[in-house]
Records
---
Amino acid sequence: MKKLGILSLLLISLVSFGQEGGGLVSFNYSAGMTVGSSREFIKPVSGRGFNLDVRFNVTEQLSIGGLIGWNYFHERKERDSYQITTTTGQTADVNAVQTRYLNMLPLMFQGQYRFVSGGSNIEPYIGLALGGYRVDYEKYWADILDEKEQWQFGLSPHAGVLIPFASELSGINLQVKYNWINFSYNEVKSVMYFDANAGIYFMF
Amino acid sequence: MKKILTLFFISSMFWGCSPKIDDISVEDLDITVTTHEEGTDFSSLGTYALADSVYIIAYDDDGNLIEDTFALENVDVIIIDQVRDEMTKLGYTEVDTSANPSVGIYISRVTNSVSGTGFVPGWCGGGWWGYPGYGWCYPGYGYSYEYKTGSLLVDMIDLQSRDDENNSFQVLWHMTSNGYITSDNINAFSEPRVRANVSRGFEQSSYLQTTN
């Protein structure tokens, strides 16, 4: 909670810092796909996700800002037998239907570099986000829950493109992000997922 | 901007609507856990004795175990029959206790909920038929859990390990299975479901196969 408070304060500071140069805010639908050991845990692509992305222009090409979002992954595993090692080191075989969830809530600082070209008003960009992810790992063995929930550091390099409407005060944001979170539990050695985002942005 | 924020808050409401396990069927709640004494050479075992009734694990109002209670309800007959089938499939031969079998199969049912700290909480079984006063103990381990009413326990006990000093036997294999027997109405069960759950415990324990 303390970390969350510090992050919020820093985000507010960024708002103050960037106000002179204008910026944009975008609301995006987000679809996610786990990779690495996270994919061992949940495979299906998830269509459940949103994020709110705020950027303040520092220069014509550089912006800094913040992002808050949500990505949700879910998989139901049909009945199967799993070998587990108990807390006392003993081996057990468990036959059960498993229901697995990963709930991700990123709260990040971010910076972007826009490739501004005189010939086109479409602006590709690359960026990096750093911050905290609230990770909720849930594995139900039938109705018995094995859960770990915590804030962890993570980062998210990303690339996208801003496509303005005719007014140029708003437009479409298309973006792909890679997320890495320092969260480890059971088969998940670190949470990794890609999310593809599409949304509307408004300049201010 | 206001619209965007409204959209965001509406979207956050979906979090609360995320399906958990509400869509799971009753059968999907069945769970079977097995463990065994590591290092045991099951292939060298060959004969077994099977209890002709099921031990009832029940507590009185003061929380004390009610000892020496056995039952042979319809569901128990099916459980015993399925266990016998599975042991035959694994190559074991059923004999009487007087024929000095390698192992004994002991079946128990829980009629009260039992709190524990594992898929298999620490447990001591009641007297073994043919060996009055003898019991066996199994250590608790693993995840926090509660033995639900209706849980079924099957134990394979090494009858050659009889410890006369402590009146006990060693447990070689243990199965816990739950979710499908209700004590409110002991006859309200599905035979295929009971048989399937017993079978799963043996099927996931292929190391039990004997060559004798």
Note: Strands of chain A lie at 23-34, 48-57, 62-85, 91-114, 123-141, 144-164, 170-181, 191-203.
---
Amino acid sequence: MIDGATARPRSAMAPLRALAGALVLLIAGVLASVYQERVFRAQRARELTVQAQILAASVTAALVFGDAKAVQEHVSALSINTEIGAAGVYDNAQNLVASFARRGAAPLQRSLRDENDGANTAMFINVPVTHQDERLGTVYIRAIEEPLARRLTRHVPMTLLAVMAALLVGFMATSQRALQNEMEQRSRAEDALRQSQKMEAVGRLAGGVAHDFNNLLTIIQGNLHLLRHADMNDHAGIQNRVASADLAADRAGNLVRRLLAFSRRQPLSPKPVDLNALTMGMKELIVHSVGELVRIEWNLGATWWIQCDVNQMENVILNLAINARDAMPDGGTLTISTRDCSLRDGADDAEVRAGDYVEFRMRDTGTGMTQEVRNRALDPFFTTKPQGKGTGLGLSTAFAFIRQSNGHLEIETAPNAGTTIIIVLPRYLGNTEQTA
Amino acid sequence: MKSRVVAPIALAAAILFAMPARSADHSLEYAVKATFLFKFASFVEWPAGTFESESSPFNLCVVGADPYGGRIAQAVAGQTVGRHPIVLTQLAKADRRSACHAMFVAGSGSQEVEEALRAVAGTATLTVTDSALSPEAGIVHFVIVDDRVSFDIDNVAAAYNHLWISSKLLSLARRVNTGRGVTR
């Protein structure tokens, strides 16, 4: 669900990004074309200026000697350059001395003033004719009017390039989107597979759990039955019955909760929590769970806080306590302790990163486990308890939860030497005063 | 300057009448030729050291009488070649010590055109002649083409006189003797 929710905007963004990319490419293409056009015009202007300067130099003597015919010869020679639409030489009074105009180009005005003021769309160049620091006149060259088709032709390669690049981006975006869709589908399929496997396991469990649940219901019913016939003045007795029923109901609730926690992916809601307070809050529950034969020692020395889902953490502790009770059928001592601990890198377990942790320890003096049992203790559905007494989910869900909370769970045990469950959870580094 | 410009009207008239009557309006032709005379100078380079300073005078000599009826004096009055003021000098005879930068050789009774040209050959003198007056050609030789004043240039003679003539002027000439045959 969460994956789907985050994946949808991402895939919706992809075509937008591709569109933006294509747009950027097209804009870049347009800019490149504009730049190219400017470079082209500048180069054209330079070429025409050079041509005009050459003409100005060559008509100098002709202007000095007033040889209009020679001027005309020089001007006419420019007609060989097809880029020139019209060219002419004006004298110092701005009167036309000689000129030529290509077919299709407007002939030059009699006066240079009119020519320069005229609404010329074509590029034109004025170059002075000077001789010995004296101005003799002006060479005027007007470029041909470039047909639109020819100007467009110049930009065809750039346009093609930009369009092809844009198409490529679009194509890539489409294929990326397809790939993303496929990945999403696969991820969903995997989720579904995992869930169906889980549901199958839950189905197989149902029998055992139902039996367990039934036992608990029997306890509740028995107590209620006894209450109905109890001497109303025997307050202690009534209290006992109520406590027993309560405990059974709690266990039934826990059983259901554990099953639910396993069967559906419950989102965790981690909160900063003082592990000592959490443990002390469960004191009564633990005392009742383990029974009168087990003595409990409390040694809560931690000062740091942790961050985890409170309900799940309580569930873990209760599970561990019940496991400990089951391991000590003839009674014993259960030691529950917490402490601050800083782990360095390369510590005994490479799976735990270096840093500050809060350690929770539950030690029993029970039967302990063989190496083989210990190795499988964290596997789901593994239990040493008789049929109907346990589901085999306690430790495995505890382990999964601790890992989800970036912590670690370890078991120290040996046959007849008791079992110690060690849980480390990362220290909460936020403000603990305000949240307290 | 005018006092130095002597224009014997009789002589001018005599020459005028001696000219073949190709154009009815000789006055325009003469005015053009007179103007051309000093305008040639701006396209010619004299050897370094020819002029004392940038503003020292440019000596334009006329050997013989002004065949254009005083129009030379009119044309050059107040004119300069670059920044050199033009000083017009009337000579009866030209020799190596004449110190003329440009010399219009019209020919006179005391010295034929050919003689005058020979006299200044090898000196830095731009010699100008008129085909209407004599077939003998100096460095620049006026000709009339299609009723228009034009000129031939003898670049070999110019080189002999240590002069460098701009290609701009050469391009305007009707014919140029480059020593490798006459072009154009």
Note: Chain B has six helices and eleven strands.
